[in-house]
Amino acid sequence: MWDERVPLHVASPFYDLAGFRTRRDDLRDFETAEVGDVTGRTLLHLQCHIGTDTLSWAHRGAARVVGLDFSVPAVEAARALAADLGYGPERAAFVAGDVYDAPGAVPEPSYDIVYTGLGALCWLPDIRRWAETAASLVAPGGFLYLAEFHPLTESLDDETGTRIVRDYFARDAQVWNEPGTYADPDAATVHNRSVEWQHTLGDVVSALAAAGLRVEFLHEHDVSLFPRFANFEVRDGYHRFPAGHPRVPLIYSLKASKS
């Protein structure tokens, strides 16, 4: 499914790679504020897709960025984009591999920053194994930074986001068979089956703590990157509930460090 969608994403206005080549930064303002200065640091991006967020950290001064994704076409697209921007593999490397096998796939044993961006964790069945893997790749004195869509939103009705209609604590795999992609909903696609898992906020935080990381903060944000609910409107570059509508957290972010 992901392999088929890579060329659609590369060509889509959603990712706007032509614009990215001049814009050079696709990170969200809260991410850059919370991660802070990355100048001279090494950064590993798990589940990097086509590499726009990974390369944004390189633009911001990271000494070396490494992106890992299980889709070979996505990795190839990321490498091509890095080359277009003048980054050789010594500065921006992309490798193919399953996130659970990342320690054996990435070129260095540990990194100052391990980063996971929005829309990644729902594809993983075992959050504890993910946390153990990610923690093992954080260098002493370094940290993991995670930004992710808030699991509460999956329990709310799709129209207004005001009614609980699904079980927040559900653990069963959710199987979907839907054509198109978030970057191009009308695209004709053949491989449409996907499987997702819901991980509560407590599950994620507890898994990182059990893996030996110290959670420094957990922040919740009332903005989204896509029209999750039918009544959303766009303000200040984000999708939000209308003014005066009761707010709920739509994204969360956390930082967890290693001694």
UniProtKB/TrEMBL annotation:
GO terms for biological process: methylation. This is Class I SAM-dependent methyltransferase. PANTHER family: TRANS-ACONITATE 2-METHYLTRANSFERASE, TRANS-ACONITATE 2-METHYLTRANSFERASE-RELATED. Its EC number is 2.1.1.222, 2.1.1.64. Residues 44-142 form the Methyltransferase domain. The keyword Methyltransferase applies. Transmembrane segments: none annotated. CDD domains: AdoMet_MTases. InterPro entries: Methyltransf_25, SAM-dependent_MTases_sf. GO terms for molecular function: 2-polyprenyl-6-hydroxyphenol methylase activity; 3-demethylubiquinol 3-O-methyltransferase activity. The keyword Transferase applies. Pfam families: Methyltransf_25. Keywords: Methyltransferase, Transferase.
